[in-house]
Write a structure and sequence with these properties.
Blueprint lengths: L20 H36 L4 H17 L5 H9 L1 H6 L10
């Protein structure tokens, strides 16, 4: 969710009939903080799992960590991998597929 995203009050559990603008902004802030925490928690939980899966299919340990991080960032936050990460993803694509971690738009 970006700063330009409009969040309707009802979607964050706010009764629009009895809320001031300040209260709405406080609820919105808490909602966005909670969403960010969920995203971070999700990434922290997936990273070691993906890393282990890549190691199990033959990717070197240090490279597996870089690849897992790129895949998790793309999956959780839709962050496109850097050119260096994309080069690694191309090089190890068969291992990534074998581990079941390939994402269709990973190399846009």
């Amino acid at each position: 969710m970006t700063a330009s995203t409009v969040v309707p009050p009802q979607s964050i559990g706010v009764d629009t009939e009895s809320i001031s603008a300040i209260d709405y902004l406080q609820h919105l802030h808490q909602f966005l903080v909670t969403q960010k925490q969920r995203t971070q928690r999700s990434a922290r939980q997936k990273m070691p799992v993906y890393w282990r899966q890549l190691i199990e299919v033959g990717v070197p340990i240090d490279t597996a960590k870089l690849l897992a991080w790129a895949i998790v960032r793309y999956e959780v936050a839709k962050i496109i991998p850097t050119p260096q990460q994309q080069q690694l993803l191309r090089h190890y694509s068969r291992f990534i597929c074998r581990a079941g971690l390939w994402r269709s738009n990973l190399l846009r």
